[in-house]
Batch of 4 targets.
Target 1
Amino acid sequence: MAMKDSEPDFRPVLNITIWILAASSGSFLGLRIWGKHQRGRKLWWDDGILIAAWICLLLSCILQSVDTHFGFGQRDADVTSQDILDMTRLVSVVAGFFLVLAAAWSKTSFALTLLRLTIPTKKCFSVRGMIWFAIWSTNLAIAASGVFQWAQCWPLDKLWRQWLPGQCLRLGIVNGYNMFVAAYSGLMDITLAMLPCKIFYPLRIQRDEKIGIVVAMGMGIFAGATSFMKIFAIYNINRIAAGPEHVVVLMILGTAESAITIMAVSMPVLRTLLMGRDKT
């Protein structure tokens, strides 16, 4: 069934935006790996986890694009059959789960990169402790969100076949927790982005080097801002009259959050490559 002319189609916006984000973050990641190879540096845990995060981001983008082919981004009434509607819901759940993994792992890579830039001394003990706290608390909070995503309905397939008999947690409970995770995740993003100021300010390196590294890592602030924006998107979905545009916005913001984090983690390596020095 074709969409009526009076009803907007959000699928082109979703596809264009997520693939720009995937391509941009993939380019930054590729340059990061190439830069380390050029400088004769081996890949470390933060690199491996960052690669895994981008793969999850890529898989989510593929699934989101496939889902738009079946009708994701349209109103339910415009989808041609119940089976296709069920399929779009299932694919969107899987795509969302990959975004959860991408968010958790990209933030972990960000934190691990900071750990490598701090010397384990008494002065840096509090900084390293804060980083480890951010790693564990953020991963636990996001992991619980992933569990909620799959365990909110019983039987399981009622999650995408909403017409089946069974029960689901109230949408307000699930979205309420997801709003908390978005807020906490954004707070940790901003905290980690500000830590380079404390790490590098006391060091005896050139001022422009300090500023460059801090600004590069400070891109994580934008990831935190994106995470905060997800709070409002989730709130809109929780409303009774929420339309497909609100779900599309949430998927775009979820994609942007991980993509920006991947670019932020890659910035210091790219900068040192351009400057002809290797600080990581």
Note: The CA atoms of residues 16 and 125 lie 44 Å apart.
Target 2
Amino acid sequence: MRAVIVEVPGYRLAEPLGAGATGVVYAANRLSDGRSVAVKVVHPELVDPQYRDRLRREARLAAAVEHPGLVRVHAVGGEGDQAWLVMDRLSGPDLQRLLDEGGPLPVDRAVAMLAEVAAAVDAMHAAGVIHRDLKPANIILDGDRPTVADFGVARQLASLESSTGMDLSGGAAWLRSGTPSGPSLGAMAGTVAYMAPEQWRGDPVSAATDVYALGGTLFSLLTGRRPFDRRTLPELAYAVAMLPPPAPSEYGVPAAFDQVVRTAMAKEPADRYPTAGAFAQALRAAAAGDVAPVVVKQRGWTRRRIGKWVAIAAPVLVIGGVTATILAQGNQQPTQLTVCAQDATVRDAPRSRTVIATVHHGDRLTPISPRDGAAWVHVRLPDGRSGWSLTDYVRHQC
């Protein structure tokens, strides 16, 4: 864990309970009465006067909301490059730990939990606070009740660099080396996997940003996988910018939930559910099998819209050596696949690091077997060798 200050006036800090993109959470006791609490110490590099003022303002707003699904904030403080806040200490695990240890949740349990979470998020939105970092790791069980933590703590993300916590200015070796794989997501994936497109672009966030994260969290609870699960940052940036939201039904989940995820994770904020409460209603309706068609505005691929997605994908993809084009699946299904990316790799197995060939835009490959989920396809090369390629990069039509 990253080194941070370990003295907070009025509190005795003990062992770290966890660390994330914004700070380290410690078990602590309040000296005045011995009460057991949790103290989050924000990473110093994120702290400036503007951030500290916003943290205090949002903590006051959060404290004014009485909802059993929200972790209460008791105090906020700090000077210079220090910022910390004192919260309820909960004994239960977070939902990411449940997924890591036990796999996907039963549908009825996932629906019940996330509907409660959405109600808590809706209450906080009504108070004018946006979470910005909603994900399974920030939903903690208090007994059997899911409780949302870290509301208003995550810094508003102004760039891809600040959002990922990576040094993209030249300090990262993968930038200088030009390796095509780019950086491995690793622990960083727990945050960026649930980030809405507007956060990647550095645009202002809104309640719709949290609705997107609710959709991604629903997908994870139902399938045990992260949305757009990719090994590298360039691959993830491309998926968020260009690919349709993932479908839970591809992993054996009832198809009614596909529409909920698809609407919540729409690329444009205006195309998502208008509130977290509306998301919860749609979620319960899907569980009951009572799903009315949702009419979503279909936005054409105008030059302006293409430019917005290129603003996300192009810098990351070019840096990572994976310059990609917009892919479109046609109604015709030719027997051969075409490489639609500038360059793509063929590997000896799905998600393997062993590359057996590099193919280029326009090359033709022959599909051998059905896709592994929606991510990989088994192909035969023109020289007779076979391997696996990401379906993002090889399609029936480009």
Note: The radius of gyration is 22 Å.
Target 3
Amino acid sequence: MEKKSNHFSGQLGFVLAAAGSAVGVGNLWRFPYLAAKDGGGLFLIIYLILVLTFGFTLLTSDIAIGRRTQKSAIGAYTQMRPKWKFLGILTFLVPVLIMTYYAVIGGWITKYAVVYVTGQAQAAAADDYFTSFISSSTSPVIFALLFMGVTAFIVYNGVEKGIEKVSKWMMPILLVLVVVIAVYSLTLSYTDASGQVHTGWQGFLYYLKPDFKGLTVQRFLQILLDAMSQLFFSLSVSMGIMITYGSYVKPEVNLNKAINQIEIFDTGVAFLAGAMIIPAVYVFSGTEGMGAGPSLMFISLPKVFSAMGKAGTFVGILFFVTAIFATLSSCISVLESITANCMEIFHTGRKKTVLVLSAIYLAVSAVIALGYSIFYVEVKLPNGSVGQLLDIMDYISNSVMMPFIALLSTILIGWIVTPYYVIDEMERSGDKFRRKKLYRVMIRFVAPVMMFILFLQSTGILF
């Protein structure tokens, strides 16, 4: 086995970096929406079960493959089975596409953080503020380039001195901020025009209480697929990131404990994200304000912060700083995955590789940022939605490629190289792989079927 020159200093550094990759903007703007839409506690129960089974299986596979091969996606799959190199190439293309727009979203969040820090919170609550901002031909480009530049600088400094060093202080701060905002959301109360009092605790109970009203087999299946889709994207699996991070893990690190810690951190932040957003939106906007994606973060929440009065500005600052950390940690991992693959393919050094990639993605990010103005297009996607440039890239990478890659990888591991390829690596440090039987059943029988169904649903073929 080839010895990797880059590595994390130990288990803590790896866990925080991997958790940083997993805790992305989807935890903040997609998880709360799905929880509110899909029966509150019912969604949470299903999600937790999937974390312990489906998510555990894919996460374990990626990390173990990375450490065993000491390579990133293309090299790892090639080493496993040369005829399956195409799967490594497909996996490599996912972060290549995601990187085209992730810095743009990071730029949007940074813009709102600046707006709140500079005392313009009321302006951000206006109905047309977000639309006016993203349709501008200058502001979204500037903030996207700024975010891309910071990401590139961290990756440029390497695994231990860049990614790990930043993750060790950024992730604990992110966790503290999420807890603080969640606790504050529970203390909120608002009396509407009819005299009815809405409290944060009511919103929290709405979030936790399983709603079985109108539950049918089809609705249950839809909730299951929503939870699986959220978990799939949240853990950064099937995009090569965890394979790359796994290749940086030292042999003596206990992968069993590390994977458990990553699962706990990611799931904990997702739960707390719901606890800080759902009660706040419920108090001031009811269930009607619980939109998904950008509309939740950039339209609904600024209105909620505005309704809080003077405290809203401070809470807004905390929230968007939290969102910056979550987005930056994920953006770093996406660029690192691309960088690692390119270093292996072209046999180039880190600094030269990052500089070339930075130049490319600075230009591409500018184009995507202008996708709502100069380069505006409307394309009807196979799932029925209409998207612009950013939506097209997101749809291809997340809805089409990632489920397809996960399906193929479960077939490769479960039936061709056999599960023991991963199991042996999990027990390499001498520790017992306690979920070995579960892993074998999931990777061979359950996960392939689930991924096939998710692929059909994500592409609009099913439902």
Note: The chain has a mean pLDDT of 93.
Target 4
Amino acid sequence: MASYLVTGSSRGLGLALISRLASLPAADVGKIIATARQDNSPQLKEIVDASSGRVEIVKLDVTNKLSVQEAANLVEGKLHGKGLDYLVNNAGLMDRSPDGLAGMDNLDDIFHTNVTSVHNVTQAFLPLLRKGKKKIVINISTTLGSFAKAEIYRQSPTPAYKITKAALNMLTVQYAQQYEPDGFTFLAVTPGWLRTDLGSSRADLPVETGAEKVVDILQQTGPHQNGKFVNIHVPGWENPLGNNQYDGQEVGW
């Protein structure tokens, strides 16, 4: 029974990931730690109440190093001496700047949440991951952070989001390179354009589909994908009209 921890679990993709994990057999998915800045999400509490103790909420503000360390200490106790198998760094922010770089006045805040906080969370949970059997860390990224696809997304008014997700991809590679000898797998995953508060109702896919496909990647990945940037696979979306494809392949950096 593998253990999982997901940041940003109170809504959107994070909430859907917790719901998906909780729906899988206990023989495959054991303890599920749902972390969020606020621990009062009604939807998350419903999942917890129906989980027979498999899902637990831990308060965690990824932007606050003291909160991160306190959460790591709490999770260590909840695992009862066992390690953490999977860490999903999902918490993140998106900007909207119709004026482009001229209107980008929040780069520091978004960089701190999307990059520095991922580093701080990963660093804090490394001791528990070392004790885990899987040692897998998934960083939720986006094709908007791809240099190779920059021209495709030229018109998207989210410069800070693009910049910080590109930096997150490099952070993923740095961790992958350093911790590969210790048996870790670090992977950047784009979950698709999802119908969430962040993605909007105009997005391509239901959030449940994105969560299902991310969990598929989680459970199928291993050292052979260390340091990769991969797309989800949604049948029928391999070559659609428009900017977005979900073909399960590596994404160009």
Note: The chain is about 35% helix and 15% strand.
